[in-house]
């Protein structure tokens, strides 16, 4: 008895040709997509040539290109901490009392030659290694603002105002320590999500290092792109003449430049030159721009939310912004 003769006609034909039909359908879809792209290239090209879109693309590319090298630096430092630094090192390096660990961690930010994009993954690695969150957050805020590269850039951007370097250092360190102490006193464990990280157990040092690098680049890089897109969108729609109107009022000028710092999302190595170009504003307003920008901007908010959780970012970012504005106004009035 032959079972092949009893099988319904066409079964074998469908089994053989089914994948071929699916490949044909996929090719057809791909062809249609390519045809649509070619047909729509005229409208797409006109849309991209519009001044608003050119401004958007310029800001987006500038933010990403400025931030990406320092993001990679932060990821490499994070991987080095996670793989090669034993947890006992931090127990020895930082005071046991969190209140004392905060200013020590804040001053340690002066040795990291990077911007806010680098400090987020490093702070995440510190929390994973058992450092008290208050100290890690103080480091996160101080590192982008008081490291030698940033202070040198500030001195070059303000050659006739050496007090700006001192004012930036003092105001930034005060805000970082104050936010660390504030988190220590009022922060709750459930507000801060421990940074996720792949398990590195059982891997060699090299494999664990590159595994950590790949994870952090993909994780933090995605949020960097989201923040850069938001910054470019807001920058493209804000009228430029608003700045000239705001500069005439001392209070409004400080608020205007701090909001601008959040929107522009410029890396701390470059923000001093932007602040120096805003000569229509007072030195105090420009100091607020330099203090707020490295601590809370759109890309940094997105990266903080991705690393420590959205609930953390929604509480930490507004408090940091308000305190940075107040401290900048006071330090500017005293030193500038």
UniProtKB/TrEMBL annotation:
InterPro entries, per the entry: DUF318 (IPR005524), UPF0718 (IPR052923)
Protein name: Permease
GO cellular component: plasma membrane
Family label: Belongs to the UPF0718 family.
PANTHER family associated with the record: UPF0718 PROTEIN YCGR
Coiled coil: none
Compartment annotation: Cell membrane
Entry's transmembrane regions: 24-44, 56-85, 134-158, 165-183, 217-238, 250-266, 312-335
Keywords per UniProt: Cell membrane, Membrane, Transmembrane, Transmembrane helix
Principal localisation: membrane
Membrane topology: Multi-pass membrane protein
Species whose genome carries this gene: Streptomyces auratus AGR0001
């Amino acid at each position: 008895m032959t079972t092949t003769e009893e099988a319904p006609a066409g079964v074998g034909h469908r089994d053989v040709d089914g994948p071929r039909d699916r490949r044909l359908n996929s090719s057809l879809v791909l062809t249609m997509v390519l045809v649509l792209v070619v047909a729509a290239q005229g409208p797409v090209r006109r849309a991209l040539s519009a001044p608003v879109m050119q401004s958007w693309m310029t800001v987006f590319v500038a933010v990403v290109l400025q931030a990406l090298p320092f993001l990679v630096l932060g990821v490499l430092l994070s991987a080095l901490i996670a793989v090669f630094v034993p947890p006992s090192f931090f127990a020895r390096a930082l005071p046991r009392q969190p209140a004392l660990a905060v200013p020590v961690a804040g001053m340690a930010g002066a040795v990291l030659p990077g911007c806010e994009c680098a400090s987020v993954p490093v702070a995440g690695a510190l929390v994973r290694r058992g450092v008290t969150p208050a100290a890690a957050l103080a480091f996160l805020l101080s590192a982008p603002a008081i490291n030698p590269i940033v202070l040198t850039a500030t001195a070059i951007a303000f050659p006739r105002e050496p007090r700006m370097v001192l004012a930036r250092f003092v105001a930034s360190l005060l805000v970082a320590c104050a936010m660390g102490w504030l988190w220590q006193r009022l922060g709750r464990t459930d507000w801060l999500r421990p940074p996720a990280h792949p398990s590195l157990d059982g891997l060699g040092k090299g494999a664990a290092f590159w595994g950590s690098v790949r994870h952090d680049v993909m994780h933090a890089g995605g949020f960097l792109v989201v923040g850069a897109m938001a910054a470019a969108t807001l920058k493209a729609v804000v009228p430029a003449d608003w700045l000239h109107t705001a500069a005439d009022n001392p209070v409004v000028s400080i608020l205007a430049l701090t909001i601008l710092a959040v929107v522009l999302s410029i890396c701390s190595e470059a923000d001093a030159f932007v602040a120096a170009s805003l000569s229509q504003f007072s030195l105090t307003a420009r100091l607020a721009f330099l203090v707020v920008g490295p601590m809370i901007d759109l890309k940094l908010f997105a990266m903080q939310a991705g690393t420590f959780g959205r609930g953390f970012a929604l509480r930490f970012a507004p408090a940091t912004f308000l305190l940075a504005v107040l401290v900048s106004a006071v330090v500017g009035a005293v030193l500038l």
